[in-house]
């Protein structure tokens, strides 16, 4: 006798329906597996350029092995283990005219025949901006990284500026001395992207730099595109403020009893070392006769 609520094998089969035919099973597995396969980006916007060393972009599938079909851009598959398919490819714009061009890259998986699509556009840079995580620097502190962002006439951001040459400078101010210094990544012992390291070795500047504060004041950093074709594109500017690295110890909230006082230390960091002296803040002394409501 069967226990209540427990189906037999026949009842379970009737509940689930008849077994799926083998071709339908394979098709279902293929569809479910293909959902996980996708490219790192669905659309790519690359800048037009006439100088050598054109901007590359890495297109990558999460899994699988693909062959590509394309036009208007050069696709260089990154083969591994002598295979005829790849999971990654480098895109390079091959446009010879300063007009907006569109291309479609189709990547087909050699086993499942699943197809991935990426839309690629090549256009002219209309303007550039400087991206910074902050507008304040401290003297003798860690350097600040600045990056260029380029946009087309419609305000779309270009996917990559890797390998494109720029000219960075500190705007002159006759009323004050220079307060900032442009550094190479190798000088600051930071690890930049590979293309930036190669450009620095060739004494070129890319779309990323480091700046360091050497004395207090304000400075304007300027960048423009090096390629003559873009000489009419306005330079991008950013104003940075360099401050002394001064802070109070203790720096957290302080709660005092009536009549008590606190001694603070004003500290300053110079070349990685902390210096300073103590100050007694007598303004915080509360006379014992004050009413408690004064503290509320």
Structure description:
The protein has 296 residues and is mainly beta. It folds into three domains: 43-123, Cadherins (Immunoglobulin-like, Sandwich); 127-243, Immunoglobulin-like (Sandwich), CATH 2.60.40; 246-295, no CATH class. Helices cover 11% and strands 38% of the residues. The protein has four helices and 18 strands. The chain has helices at 9-16, 22-34, 185-188, 194-201, and strands spanning 43-47, 56-60, 66-69, 73-77, 88-93, 101-109, 115-123, 127-132, 136-138, 144-151, 166-170, 180-183, 208-213, 217-225, 236-243, 246-249, 263-270, 273-280. It has a four-stranded mixed β-sheet, with no helix packed on it. It is elongated. The model is unreliable at 1-35, 282-287 and 289-296 (pLDDT under 50).
Shape: elongated
CATH class category label of the largest domain: Mainly Beta
**What do the pLDDT scores average to?**
76
Number of strands: 18
CATH topology (fold) name of the largest domain: Immunoglobulin-like
Pattern of helices and strands:
HHEEEEEEEEEEEEHHEEEEEE
How much strand content do the residues show?
35-45%
Give a quick account of the main beta sheet: strands, pairing sense, barrel closure: 4 strands, mixed
Q: Please, how many helices? A: 4
Structural class, by secondary structure, is mainly beta
Main-sheet strand order equals 1-7-6-3
Our count of domains comes out at 3
Low-confidence stretches: 1-35, 282-287, 289-296
Radius of gyration: 31 Å
Distance between the termini: 78 Å
């Amino acid at each position: 006798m069967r226990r209540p609520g427990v189906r037999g094998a026949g009842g379970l089969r009737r509940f689930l329906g008849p077994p799926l035919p083998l071709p339908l099973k394979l098709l279902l597995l293929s569809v479910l597996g293909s959902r996980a396969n996708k490219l790192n980006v669905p659309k790519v916007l690359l800048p037009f350029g006439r100088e050598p060393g054109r901007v590359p972009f890495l297109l990558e599938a999460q899994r699988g092995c693909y062959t590509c079909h394309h036009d208007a851009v050069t696709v260089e598959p990154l083969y591994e283990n002598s295979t005829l398919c790849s999971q990654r490819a480098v895109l390079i714009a091959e446009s010879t005219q300063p007009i907006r061009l569109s291309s479609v890259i189709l990547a087909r998986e050699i086993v499942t025949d699943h197809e991935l699509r990426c839309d690629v556009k090549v256009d002219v840079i209309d303007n550039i901006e400087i991206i910074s995580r902050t507008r304040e620097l401290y003297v003798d502190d860690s350097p600040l990284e600045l990056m260029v962002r380029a946009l087309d006439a419609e305000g779309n951001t270009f996917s990559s500026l890797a390998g494109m040459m720029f000219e960075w400078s500190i705007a002159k101010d006759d009323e004050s001395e220079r307060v900032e210094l442009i550094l190479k990544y190798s000088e600051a012992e930071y690890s930049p992207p590979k293309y930036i390291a190669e450009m620095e070795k060739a004494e070129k500047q890319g779309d990323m730099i480091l700046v360091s504060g050497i004395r207090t004041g304000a400075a304007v950093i300027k960048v423009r595109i090096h390629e003559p074709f873009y000489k009419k594109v306005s330079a991008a500017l950013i104003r940075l403020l360099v401050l002394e690295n001064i802070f109070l110890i203790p720096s957290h909230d302080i709660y005092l009893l009536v009549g008590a006082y606190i001694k603070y230390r004003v500290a300053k960091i110079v070349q990685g070392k902390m210096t300073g002296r103590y100050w007694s803040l007598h303004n915080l002394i509360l006379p014992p006769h004050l009413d408690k409501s004064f503290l509320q």
